[in-house]
Amino acid sequence: MQLRTVSILGVGLLGGSIGLAIKQQISSCRVNGYGHKRETLNSAVRRGAIDQAFDDPADAVGGADLVILCTPVGVFPDILRGIAPAVGNALLTDVGSTKRTVVALAEKLLPSPGRFVGSHPMAGSEKRGIEFARADLCNGATCIVTPTDRTDPQAAADIESFWKMLGMRTIRLSPADHDARMAQISHLPHALAAILVAAADNDALQVAGKGFLDVTRIAAGDGALWRDILIDNRDNMRECISRLKSELDKLGDLLEPSRGEELRVVLDEAGRRRSRLIGENEGGKGG
Asked: Is the same domain home to 10 and 96?
């Protein structure tokens, strides 16, 4: 796949980082950027993340070889409707944290539905905005790619090649499997971080230390963005919440001196599982 022009719709942290990475890897590639805030677009141009700024997404995608949706998931329906008449035969993907809705919409609204391949780069930060974008944000991370039966096989392969060019590993999941897994390891943890902060009274927060800040770091994310994610994946979220309630009830039952050894076993096993996870992730980055 030869990339001469890439259009990034949404030039915040992730969109801006992708633009910087593209310019680093393919200096001859032109990067167009769309956003609803002129100051953000101007900043993206100054930082070199995009070459030209557009106020209209349809104008931004004209003549592009690759279009990447980097807006919040709640904006995807309007964006897809807006670019459908202008996107031509471009390859399209997104970076959204949920996949079923955007994939279904793209296959319904776009003139060449097989040219859309859902993606979720597992890279980012609780910080937001083009000022925090960096070219190596995706390097060493995993990108989940979610083709369907309607996806052009070459389009899926080209999207995987694109993310690998940015230094990512890729795996394939169905949109449904993606959303179910993300509810457990991304969406529920974010909601829990927010709830932990909300549940602590002001007196307790005054003496909060590094442990509390570490556990709740992701609560600093964009509330509007996460609202859209949690609502879009609400069926999986409700199932995860039900399972969590059950585990918390079990924990409550273990808070008796006579069951202290059982409690220790549960805590130690959780620690071992996390240690294995850290080891696997570090091993993957090394490979």
From this structure: yes
- 17 and 31 together in one domain: yes
- CATH code at 183? 1.10.3660.10
Same domain, 143 and 22: yes
Residues 186, 108 share a domain: no
Q: How far is CA 229 from the centre of its chain?
A: 10
- Domain containing 245: what range? 178-253
Name the residue among 4, 10, 154, 139 with its Cα closest to residue 66. Answer: 4
> Which pLDDT score is estimated for 284?
45
**Could you tell me which residues are beta bridge partners of residue 69?**
9, 94
- Antiparallel, parallel or unpaired: β 66-69 and 5-9: parallel
Quote the crossing angle between the two packed helices 76-83 and 100-109, to the nearest 10°: 20
Whether residue 273 lies inside any domain: the answer is no
pLDDT at 285: 44
Residues 165 and 227 in one domain: no
pLDDT (0 to 100) of residue 89:
92
Asked if residue 22 lies in contact with residue 15, where contact means CB atoms within 8 angstroms, the answer is: no
pLDDT at 128: 82
Do 87 and 117 lie in one domain? The reply is yes
Torsion 262-265-271-272 (CA) sign: negative
Contact between 9 and 71 under an 8 Å Cβ cutoff? The reply is yes
Q: Which residues of 207-230 are buried (b: 16+ CB within 10 A; e: fewer)?
A: eeeeeeeeebebbebbeebbebbb
pLDDT along the chain (287 residues), means of 10: 94 96 94 94 96 96 97 93 95 97 96 96 84 93 97 98 97 98 97 96 96 94 92 98 97 97 96 89 49
CA dihedral 83, 85, 86, 89 (to 10 degrees): 100
